[in-house]
Amino acid sequence: MSEEMKPLVSVRLMVYNNEPYIREAVESILMQKTDFMVEIVVGDDFSTDNTLEIIKSYQNTKNIYFKILKREIGGTYWADRKKLGRLYNFKNIIDNCEGKYIALLDGDDYWTDPLKLQKQVDFLKNNREYNGCFHNSYSLNNDDKKSLTKWRSYNRVEYVAEDTITTLSLFHTSSYLFRNDIEIPQWFYKIFSGDMALLAIISSYGKLYYFNEVMSVYRIHCKNITSNMDKIQYHKNRIILMKQINEFFDKKYSKKTKEVVSFHKRELSVIKISRLKKTLKKIFK
């Protein structure tokens, strides 16, 4: 590949049975206006619908081209995915990104600003002390665009590693753009929230910058993994995540970690007591 064709940005497009939404996701990437090359690295986790066929129906543009990872049942990826679990797809796509910067998008989310990538790349080019930059997002419930609400409220633009140890994700995955200079450790496969873990890893290489703009939409629907998760399992997963991140930072932020873990333990107690009361009520009704 010539230097002119080499991508500056890789878009990690992770998909699985996203047929109802994938066109909006792909077209939000193709609408990006950039003065650099972009590769869309597609990692399909063996969809059983037409997600992959829809992606293949799109053509490359002057600045943007598709790189669909080859995956076959019984092949190397299939075997490794079976052994390492759901987050192997997440990491495998990133491992196949050739750009100097990586942006993340899932097949059921989409971007709203055609200058998103250009703005974020320009910032990181000019601010070497930052390793990633992010922006606000809208959340969309049940595909009702009248229900669009801001993902989070922010009161500053600079964040550091300790800020990633929190009860909720700081930023939504669709807002991430970071330097392709990180190493993802093996414990990544053991946790559930890949986005929160990745954010902590990125922050270990440099500061994080927040753009006070909404440039993406996170779609909440019944097929979301988090939406379908049992509340008890949700809090247990977060406790495991926080403990792994604390070890990753060599226990530098143990105090903050303890606070977050305590929060999740309290929530677990409330849920368990509530369920016990409901069970007893049924028994003695």
Give the CATH superfamily of the largest domain: Spore Coat Polysaccharide Biosynthesis Protein SpsA, Chain A
Overall number of structural domains: 2
| Percent of residues in β-strands | 15-25%
Q: What global shape is seen?
A: globular
Radius of gyration, in angstroms, nearest whole number: 20 Å
Low-confidence stretches: none
Q: In CATH's first tier, which class of the largest domain applies?
A: Alpha Beta
| Beta strands, count | 10
Helix/strand order, N-terminal first: EHEHEHHEEHEEEEHEHHH
Overall pLDDT metric: 92
What would your notes on this structure say?
By secondary structure, this protein is α/β, with parallel strands linked by helices. The chain has two domains: 214 residues, Spore Coat Polysaccharide Biosynthesis Protein SpsA, Chain A; 53 residues. The radius of gyration is 20 Å and the shape is globular. The mean pLDDT is 92. Helix content is 37%, strand content 21%. Helix 8 packs antiparallel against helix 9. It contains nine helices and ten strands. Helix 2 links the parallel strand 2 and strand 3. Strands 1, 2, 3, 4, 5, 6, 7, 8, 9 and 10 form a ten-stranded mixed β-sheet that branches.
Give the helices and strands, then pairings:
Elements: E1 9-15, H1 22-30, E2 38-44, H2 51-56, E3 64-68, H3 76-84, H4 87-95, E4 101-106, E5 110-111, H5 116-126, E6 130-141, E7 149-150, E8 158-159, E9 177-179, H6 194-203, E10 207-220, H7 225-228, H8 231-248, H9 254-283
Parallel strand pairs: 1-2, 1-4, 2-3, 6-10
Antiparallel strand pairs: 4-9, 5-10, 6-7, 6-9, 8-10
Helix pairs in contact: 8-9
